[in-house]
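We emphasize that the prediction below concerns an isolated chain of 112 residues; any contacts that depend on oligomerization or on bound cofactors are therefore not represented. The input was used exactly as deposited, without trimming of termini.
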Amino acid sequence: MPDRVHNLFYHDCSSIDALEASKRLRPQALAPMSTPVHLSTERFGRIPRGYIACAEDRALSTELQRDMISKSLPVEVRTLPSGHSPFFSMPDRLAAALIDLSAIGKTILKGT
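Result of the prediction step, given as a token string:
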């Protein structure tokens, strides 16, 4: 496994998880990240949004994560002390954060 991949995505994961995950990496299209998207308040604006911030992420800086969050307000944020792959490094904590965000989203939707 290349050291760069491990350092960026799996530095806080077990060696076995990191090795198995790196075997499954595939090239990703860049066009979706640079294609303009037009959102409306009537549609996207009504959808509750949540974000799991990864405090130790080496692939997405804290500044980049904050920028993404600020472009999608209002958003509920939960922060995990993990790298880019909390689904390997702390799956139980990630699941709890997702369940928490889901419950908040359901509450918001009921109020509309």
